[in-house]
Write a structure and sequence with these properties.
Layout lengths: L1 H23 L18 H8 L1 H35 L4 H9 L6 H12 L11 H26 L3 H8 L4 H12 L1 H16 L3 H6 L8 H9 L5 H27 L10
Length: 266
């Protein structure tokens, strides 16, 4: 009975994915009142790479996600280092604040940015790049902090103490000794932060108001609302996003091995 229940749960979870897959390879108008599409094609995947708007959104997402990941690495490593190695008095408060983005809905964060920066040089109605990068970084910062935190906990402090005894300062020790030792954790955290930022939905839908600034998620939404083959091209872009997430999770799991589950342990 347990296996049957588990199988049904998995089947229900896979239904939306199968719908996206079939929509991405079906001809427009060929899937109506039938179980399966009547005609198949790969033209929608070709259209993703041929259309200026879809390619522009991919380039935008690469830019936003790359910049936000760099921010996450710098801030995440610093916070994790303070929590594990320096054990600052306000460590519990800092850790709680750093994890808050996991509990804060992205829609709330995005609307907060719009309300706060309207009419300023950061107004997303003019250019949302800065706020999208900041929003992506804030939303994915916990991934990087937990990844670096786990790495610091698993690394002996002996080599760092030896470096300090030889006269190296704390930041030089961090750069030359500690970071190479936790590189696998940082790589896994960076991969997760980057991949999820590439497909961030809530910030993208609200902050990107002009088509030339659309990231992937907003472009998929825009295509889906278009008549004709818009739904199919949107599904093809969604499939590329699913592939990216799958590869990213596999890379992170391969890098960390059994330690993958420790990323979000406190």
């Amino acid at each position: 009975l347990l296996w049957v229940g588990g199988g049904l749960l998995i089947a229900v979870a896979l239904v939306p994915h199968m719908g996206v897959i079939m929509s991405s390879i079906s001809r427009p108008g060929s899937w109506f009142m039938t179980v399966l599409p009547q005609e198949w094609t790969l033209d929608h995947y070709r259209a993703v790479f041929d259309r200026p708007d879809t390619m522009g959104s991919i380039q935008n997402s690469l830019l936003y996600a790359s910049l936000s990941t760099v921010l996450d690495i710098v801030i995440g490593v610093l916070i994790a280092w303070l929590l594990v190695r320096k054990k600052v008095p306000t460590g519990a408060v800092l850790d709680t604040l750093a994890m808050m983005p996991l509990a804060l809905p992205g829609v709330v964060l995005a609307f907060g940015y719009v309300a706060t920066f309207a009419g300023t040089f950061l107004d997303p109605r003019r250019d949302p790049t800065a706020l999208l990068v900041i929003g992506y970084a804030v939303r994915r910062l916990p991934y990087m902090i937990r990844s670096a935190y786990a790495g610091f906990q698993q690394t002996s402090i002996t080599l760092e103490e030896a470096s300090a005894n030889m006269g190296a300062g704390p930041f030089r020790t961090l750069w030359r000794i500690t970071l190479p030792l936790v590189a696998a954790n940082l790589l896994a955290g960076a991969v997760l932060a980057f991949s999820f930022a590439m497909l961030e939905v809530s910030d993208s839908l609200i902050l990107a108001m002009q088509p030339r600034f659309y990231p992937i998620a907003k472009q998929i939404f825009s295509l889906y609302l278009r008549l004709g083959d818009g739904e199919n091209i949107a599904s093809a872009m969604g499939m590329l996003g699913m592939f990216l997430l799958t590869v990213s999770l596999l890379v992170a799991a391969k890098t960390l091995g059994k330690r993958m589950g420790q990323l979000f342990q406190s």
